[in-house]
Amino acid sequence: MPKINAERKIVKKDQRSYDHRVEVVFSPAQYDLYQEDMDIVVVIDVLRATSAMVTAFENGAKAIIPVATVDEAKAYLGKEGFIAAAERNGEVVEGFPIGNSPYDFMGDHVKGKTVVISTTNGTRAITMAKDKPHLVIGSMLNLDAICEWLIEQEKNVLLFCSGWQNKFNLEDTTCAGAIISQLLESGKFGLEEDTSIAAKFLFMAARANFTSMLKSAPRRKRLEQLDLLKDAKYCLTLNQSRIIPVLKNGELVKMESVVTPSTLN
User: Fold this and answer.
1) 41 lies in some domain
2) What confidence tens digit (pLDDT) does each residue in 137-167 have?
3) Pairing with 235, which of 102, 103, 190, 217 sits 20 to 30 Å away (CA)?
């Protein structure tokens, strides 16, 4: 009996050779199953909300207010200093000048403005996770920057895929797998959920050509019909930005270039 107990202790120690966890949730419908004990939530909506947010900050946006409903965004239409944007099912909501295409946020018209945006999936995920200690925005565009910062924080990380209408999608999970890959390589993180393992292997399968991933996706036809293939190609391009948007007091702001754990509190 003493020998068996000793073996159990060794196994337990080996299983937790890492200090922190990085896990993936595939969609908002599963968020409550994975969010416990997670210090940092990274919201991912590759096509297109989080990519648009990173792009807005690259073009000088002052802040971004993510809202869950179209009516909330509508209150800012025509308001001085604000840009109101809304998207549903891949299309610009009637009455709004723009939706969630990254190209809508390129140019001097964004500089110094606060963007108020509501989208089908991404802003809903942000709203769900807004009470977490730290919420940041991830995408293919700022992949390396977000990975480097997460490694420095040494906290449990939940990669929150916005998915598509509460369902799994390929691009968000692949992006999560790319982040997992870098965090595991640091030696500071481990994973315990099957979703995280699946995301890692999906990234490994797609890493040679991310755009080929969409060619086999049924949603490609919808992207073509809405003339969004240009957006998709841009959103799947790695490391176009070093900016990390972070949620503070209900607004996303650009994280300072040098960040330590204390600056988040």
Assistant:
1) yes
2) 999 999 999 999 999 999 999 999 999 999 9
3) 190
